[in-house]
Design a protein that fits this description.
- The protein is mainly alpha-helical.
- It has a domain at about 1-55.
- Helix content is about 60%, strand content about 0%.
- It has 4 helices and no strands.
- It has helices spanning about 1-50, 65-75, 80-90, 105-110.
- The longest helix has about 50 residues, at about 1-50.
- Keywords: Membrane, Transmembrane, Transmembrane helix.
Length: about 120
């Protein structure tokens, strides 16, 4: 009798877990289909009104990324916060020797010229 109860309990748990998994899978599948239908209706409406179809994306600003939050927090040492604060206050293309670029770009800028187009040889 004890073996029969063990067998029945094991199969009952297996069937219940299988049913939970099937319900979870079907709910995710339904959600995906609803989102696809909603996006399709949105794209159809955009085409009918003559607007471009834009994808759904999460807006991400560079200032809100994890890396910049870590850098603003100061990292592991105290000097990281000081260097980050100095980098934020310095102008990006300053010609002073202590800036980010160290005046290198202003020295090289005189040597830069426009690219001349050339004919591509045919094969």
């Amino acid at each position: 009798m004890n073996d029969f109860l063990n067998w029945a309990t094991r199969w009952t748990v297996r069937i219940v877990l299988l049913m939970v998994g099937v319900v979870f899978f079907l709910s995710l599948l339904t959600l995906g289909c609803l989102l696809a239908a909603l996006w399709g209706l949105r794209a159809l409406w955009a085409k009918l009104t003559g607007q471009p179809v834009t994808p759904w994306v999460m807006p991400m600003r560079a200032a809100s990324s994890w890396t910049s939050m870590y850098q603003r927090a100061g990292g592991f040492g105290g000097m990281a916060a000081e260097s980050a604060a100095a980098a934020e206050t310095a102008p990006p293309f300053s010609t002073t020797p202590g800036s980010k670029r160290g005046g290198i770009l202003s020295q090289v800028a005189g040597d830069v010229s426009d690219v001349q187009p050339r004919e591509v040889p045919e094969r």
